[in-house]
């Protein structure tokens, strides 16, 4: 397993890691800042074994694709969500991070047939990446060893539809909604130019692509791990009617 400044390829607990855990004021201050938040990521009972999520980005994507196929076929593998509850108090090893819409009809663990502790999910209406979301994903990549990030949009997205109405009709939304919508407007503008008669599906896809591209250019952590081959960022759209996720 690796220390807080460097994520090793094999995720094994090295002598330098043991030194880190027993280090002096500098390391103690770092852990105090994190409030112990990072510590469970390194908690393995067998230090000679790689972490459960020490897999390639392609293998992580394959797991998601296969899990979604099970969900669509109504043949889930995960049926007992209490299994492993005690073990999860000690550590988490998510193999994929997701940027998902807050829509109540979208449940990533169900859609990809994954158990608790296997997905590291950031949710916000309109599934876009802001600074808080980026910091969360950076934590997942740097400290939890997440090898894959998926930006997941969905059909009939109300947030994207609202962005289209704002751009097209010039309406003003109440409260803090204008700030939220401003993050989705680039996709709405593209869709209104390309598909003015039916812009929503195009805007949903363009919003996913826009945020995938944004993540791929996010420095320093995300770009570093992508360049090293330890991380991949992809996009997908979840169809509410069928449950199927189409990669984009």
Shape: globular
CATH topology (fold) name of the largest domain = Beta-carbonic Anhydrase, Chain A
Low-confidence stretches: 1-45
Number of beta strands: 5
* CATH top level assignment of the largest domain: Alpha Beta
Order of helices and strands: HHHHEHEHEHHHHHEE
Structural class: alpha/beta
Helix content: 40-55%
Which secondary structure elements does this structure contain, and how are they paired or packed?
Blueprint: H1 15-21, H2 25-34, H3 57-72, H4 85-88, E1 96-100, H5 108-111, E2 119-123, H6 131-142, E3 148-154, H7 158-169, H8 177-182, H9 185-194, H10 199-216, H11 221-227, E4 232-238, E5 245-247
Parallel strand pairs: 1-2, 1-3, 3-4
Antiparallel strand pairs: 4-5
Helix pairs in contact: 7-9, 9-10
Which key terms come to mind for this protein?
single chain; 248 residues; alpha/beta; Beta-carbonic Anhydrase, Chain A; 2 domains; five-stranded mixed beta sheet; 11% strand; globular; disordered N terminus
3D structure, described in words:
43% of the residues lie in helices and 11% in strands. The chain is an alpha/beta fold. It folds into two domains: 1-50, no CATH class; 52-247, Carbonic anhydrase (Beta-carbonic Anhydrase, Chain A, 3-Layer(aba) Sandwich). Helix 7 (158-169) crosses helix 9 (185-194). The longest helix is centred in the last third of the chain and has 18 residues, at 199-216. The model is unreliable at 1-45 (pLDDT under 50).
In short:
With 248 residues, this protein is of the alpha/beta class. The chain has 11 helices and 5 strands, in the order ααααβαβαβαααααββ.
């Amino acid at each position: 397993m690796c220390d807080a400044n460097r994520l090793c390829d094999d995720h094994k607990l090295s002598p330098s890691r043991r030194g880190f855990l027993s280090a002096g004021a500098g390391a103690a201050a770092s852990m105090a800042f994190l409030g112990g938040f990072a510590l469970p990521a390194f908690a393995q009972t067998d230090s000679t074994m790689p972490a459960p999520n020490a897999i390639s980005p392609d293998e992580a994507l394959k797991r998601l694709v296969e899990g979604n196929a099970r969900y669509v076929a109504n043949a889930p593998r995960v049926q007992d969500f209490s299994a492993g509850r005690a073990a999860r108090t000690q550590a988490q090893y998510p193999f994929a991070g997701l940027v998902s819409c807050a829509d109540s009809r979208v449940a990533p663990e169900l859609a990809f047939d994954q158990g608790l502790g296997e997905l590291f999910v950031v949710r916000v209406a309109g599934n876009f990446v802001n600074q808080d979301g980026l910091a969360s994903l950076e934590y997942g990549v740097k400290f939890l060893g997440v090898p894959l990030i998926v930006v997941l949009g969905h059909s009939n997205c109300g947030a994207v539809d609202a962005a289209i109405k704002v751009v097209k009709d010039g309406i003003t939304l109440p409260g803090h909604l204008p700030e939220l919508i401003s993050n989705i407007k680039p996709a709405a503008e593209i869709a209104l130019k390309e598909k003015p008669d039916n812009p929503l599906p195009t805007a949903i896809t363009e919003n996913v692509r826009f945020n995938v591209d944004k993540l791929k250019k996010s420095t320093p952590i995300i770009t570093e791990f992508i360049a090293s081959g330890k991380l991949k960022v992809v996009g997908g759209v979840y169809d509410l009617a069928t449950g199927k996720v189409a990669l984009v």
